[in-house]
Amino acid sequence: MTLPASWLPVASDSDFSVHNLPFGVFSTGLEQPRVGVAIGDFIIDMSTAAQLGVMSEAGVAVSVFQHPTLNPLMSLGRPAARRIREILQRQLTQTDSFLHKLAAEVLVPQAIAQLHLPVAIGDYTDFYSSLEHATQVGQLFRPNNPLLPNWKHLPVAYHGRSSSIVVSGTPINRPNGQVLPMGAEVPIFQPTQALDYELELGFVIGKNSKLGVPVSVEEAEEYIFGCVLFNDWSARDIQRWEYQPLGPFLSKNFASSLSPWVVTLDALETFRVAGPEQNPEPLPYLRTSGALNFDLNLEVAIKPQDVSETVVCRTSARYVYWNIRQQLAHHTVSGCNLRVGDLLATGTISGPDGSGCLLELTEGGKKPIRLTDGTERTYLQHGDEVIMRGHAGRGDVRVGFGEVRGSILDSPESEN
Amino acid sequence: MTLPASWLPVASDSDFSVHNLPFGVFSTGLEQPRVGVAIGDFIIDMSTAAQLGVMSEAGVAVSVFQHPTLNPLMSLGRPAARRIREILQRQLTQTDSFLHKLAAEVLVPQAIAQLHLPVAIGDYTDFYSSLEHATQVGQLFRPNNPLLPNWKHLPVAYHGRSSSIVVSGTPINRPNGQVLPMGAEVPIFQPTQALDYELELGFVIGKNSKLGVPVSVEEAEEYIFGCVLFNDWSARDIQRWEYQPLGPFLSKNFASSLSPWVVTLDALETFRVAGPEQNPEPLPYLRTSGALNFDLNLEVAIKPQDVSETVVCRTSARYVYWNIRQQLAHHTVSGCNLRVGDLLATGTISGPDGSGCLLELTEGGKKPIRLTDGTERTYLQHGDEVIMRGHAGRGDVRVGFGEVRGSILDSPESEN
Fold first, then answer.
1. Per-residue pLDDT tens digits for A233-276
2. Which GO molecular function entries does the Swiss-Prot or TrEMBL record give (chains A, B) (predicted)?
C-alpha cells in the first residue's frame, strides 16, 4: 500500500483508485464487448493495451482480453490476474511508462462506455450467512422458531437462478405470482405487492474444482477471482406462499443485479478484519481463524423517480457470520464441484447498525419507512431505483465496487 | 405411426426403433465427441452423414453436428429437429436411400462408442410434481403436515446444481456431510448413511425465452427439445438436517445422472395420456386440458456388485400430477427466462403402483427391502449400481430412453 499516486488524476472519493483496478467488460459504439480495467473515471481498454504490447510481460494471450466475458481471463488463475494488476499499477504510477505514452489510445471515459455482465455465470449459489438477517427474517416468517437449529452449525445455502442475473442498470420487471391473501385459504395471482431488494456480496469463482474432491478452508480463496455487489431482488408475498418445503423459487428467480466491476481479492487484502465470534465452534472442516472478513462499508439508497435518493441502510460486510472460506468449503464438502464463472453470494447482509432489505426495515411491511421526499415505503414502487454501493477505506487508500442499480418497472410486457 | 420397418434390423425390444431416433453425443477412439442418433444397436454418425450430404435437405449447417453438445442443434428449434428425424426415418426405411448406400461409413456400433453428457446444461430446476411422492415423503419429514397447503395450487420446485450433472455410467462418490444423529442436538460429520436415488424425467429446453415475458401453457412445448431419464441422487440424512428453511443443498448437489439419449417430444407424441384429475382447479395460468402426460413405463433396478439386478420399482410417468406445460408456465410466470440447455426435471416419480426412491420404499430407512441375492437394503451400499429404464409401447411400436446407470463408490479420494 505504498504505491505513489497515478499520473492519471483519480478523485480521492473514487472507488477505482490505483489500489483497486477491478476487471469488467465494456463496449463503445458498435464495437464488441471486451475486457477493461477501471481507473478513476476511465477504463483501460485491455484489448487495445494488450495488442499494443503493454501487457507483454504478463505472459497472457491477447485473446483473453478480446472476449465478451472475464471467464477466459479468470481461468488463468489468480496469479495471472495478480501479474496484470501489478503491471498496470507500475505503468499507472510511472510517468515514463508505455501505458502513459499510449494513454490516448487505451483510456476510454466511463461516461461513453456501456458496461456488460462481466461473467458468464454457471451455477449461482446464495448463502444465508448474516446472523442478524437470519434472525430478523426468521422472526417474521416463523415467530416461534426464528433461528433454526442448523444455522450456527453450517452456512445455510440454496441454489439460485443464473439465467436472470443482469448487469447494473437493467430495469427490473415487477413479477407476477401466486400469493395467499391474509386469512385466505386459496391463493390469488397478481403482481407482487412486496417487492424487495437484498444487499449482498457475490464471490466469483475463478478456478475449477474436481467433482468428488472437497476444497478445504485453507485452499478456498485460491478458487475465488474476485468480488461484486449483488442485489438479489425478492418478492416477499410470493416467497411466503411458495417457499415450503423446498425453498424460494419464483420469489427470487425473476432477476438479480450484479455490479459491473469485479474487485480482486488481492485489492481487498488490506481491509481484512475478524468476523463475529462463532459459538458453538464449527465442525473441523469449517474451522478458520484470523482476520478473514472484509471491512467493506455498504449502503443502500432508494431513489424514487425524479427526486433525490434516500440512504436507507448503512452497514458493513464485517458482520457476516460465515466467511467465504467457510462457505466455499461447505459448498464442496459433499464433493460438489465448482466451475469458473460460478457465483457464491453471501445472502442479505444486515448488521447491528443496518438492515439489508425492506422486509427487515419495515418489519414485514408493517412499519413504513419515510423517504426524504416525504413519501413512505413498505416495499418498492414503480419507478423506484435501488442503488447499492460498497467501498473500503484506510487512510488515503480507497477501494470500492462502484454501484449496482436497478429501477422497478410495473406492467411488464406480458403479451406473450 | 405407419412407418415401414427399417432396412437396418432393430430388435423388437429395442428402445431405439425407427419411431424414436433420439439425439446424443458420442465419440470413438481418439476422435472428438460429435452428434449421433441412436437406431437399434447402432449410432448414426450425424457429422459424417451431414458431411457426405445425407442431411442436405434439412437445411442445417454441418457444424451443428460436429459440436460436442446438442446445444447448437437444439437452438435451431423443434422444426429443424423434426425435419432431421423425418429425413432419417425416410432414409432408414427406403432401401435405395443415400443413407443405406453409405451405411458402412455412417453407422457406428454402440458397443464401441463412448457416450457423453449430451447437453451443456445451464440452469437445472427440479420440480416436486408427483402427488404420491410428495405425500409419502411429507409423511416421513413432517408426520403432522405431509402435503403442504401450496402443493395442489402450484408446481413446487427449486433450483438444483448443474455442475455436478454427469452422464450415465459415471461412478457416484458417496458424499460426506453434516447429519444430526437421532436424539442428538449437535451434528456430526460423516459419509452419508442414507444414500438414495430419485427416479425422474428431465425436459431439455431448446429455445430461449425472454426475461420478463412469461411463456403460456399453450406455448410451453415449443420450448422443449426433448426428454431424458434422470437420477437425482440424494443423501437423506444430510437433507433432513440442512433443508430448512431454504431447501436441499449438499444433500442433492454432489451428483445427478442423465441418460445419454435425448428423446424428442415428437417421438413421444403418440403416447400421450391424460394426467390425474386436478382438484382444486388450478389458477388460469396453469389450466390445461386433454392428454398431456406421457404413458412411459419406468423401472428402477438395484444391482449389487457381481450379482444380478433386482427391479425395485415399476411405475409410469402418467401419474405425474403437474404436467410439463404447467411446470414450464409456472417457472416463467415470474418473468424468469429459459435458455437453450436448461433442464427441468419432474422430481421423483412415484405412482399408486411403485415408489421412485428408497426413502419411500423403506419408509425412511425403517423397513429394508430384500434383493434377489438375499441381501437387504435400506439405502445404497458400496458397489451398488442403480439402473433406471423407461419406454413407451403401443402395438409393435416401441420408443424408449435406454438406461441411466450409476454405481456407488465409497471412500472417495478426498486427499485434496
1. 999 999 999 999 999 999 999 999 999 999 999 999 999 999 99
2. fumarylacetoacetase activity; metal ion binding
Contact B170, B136 (CB under 8 A): no
Give the neighbor-by-neighbor strand order of the sheet with B172-173.
B172-173, B397-409, B385-394, B297-303, B310-316
Could you tell me if B102 and B136 lie in one domain? no
Please tell me whether residues B109 and B128 are part of one structural domain: no
Confidence of residue B145 (pLDDT cuts 50, 70, 90): confident
Is A82 in the same domain as A135? no
Q: How many independent structural domains does chain B possess?
A: 2
Calculate what percentage of chain A has a pLDDT beyond 90: 95
Is residue A14 situated within a structural domain? no
Nearest to B242 among A150, A159, A162 (CB): A150
Residues B302 and B338: beta-carbon distance below 8 Å: no
pTM equals 0.97
Measured in degrees and rounded to the nearest 5, phi and psi for residue B309 equal: -80, 160
Whether residue A260 contacts residue A167, with contact meaning beta carbons closer than 8 Å, is answered with yes
**What residues of A are in contact with residue B156 (Cβ under 8 Å)?**
242, 245-246, 249
Nearest to B164 by CA among B411, B379, B406, B410: B406
Chain A residues in contact with B241 (beta carbon < 8 A): 150
pLDDT at A46 over 80: yes
Q: Do B6 and B18 meet the contact criterion of CB atoms below 8 Å apart? A: yes
Distance from CA of B79 to the nearest CA of A (A): 20
Binding residue per annotation — A314? no
- The answer to whether ipTM exceeds 0.85 is yes
A381 interface with B at CB cutoff 8 Å? no
Q: Which residues of B are catalytic?
A: 133
Amino acid at A119: V
Do A45 and A100 share a domain, yes or no? yes
A361 and A230 housed in the same domain? yes
Determine, yes or no, domain membership for A66.
yes
Is the predicted pLDDT of residue A128 greater than 90, yes or no?
A: yes
Per-residue confidence (pLDDT) for residue A414, from 0 to 100: 41
The domain that contains A171 carries what CATH number? 3.90.850.10
At residue B141, the pLDDT reads: 79
Residue B182 confidence class, pLDDT cut points 50, 70, 90: very high
Q: Are residues B198 and B285 in the same domain?
A: yes
Is residue A330 annotated as part of the catalytic site, yes or no? no
* Partner A contacted by B135 (CB < 8 A): no
B238 touches A at CB < 8 Å = yes
Nearest Cβ partner for B187 among A148, A153, A210:
A153
Among the partner-chain residues B160, B164, B244, the one whose CB lies closest to the CB of A337 is B164
- Domain match, A200 and A284 both: yes
Same domain, A230 and A96: no
Does residue A14 carry a pLDDT above 80?
yes
Helix, strand or coil for residue A266? Answer: helix
Q: Which residue of B has its CA nearest to A334?
A: B175
Domain span at B407? 124-415
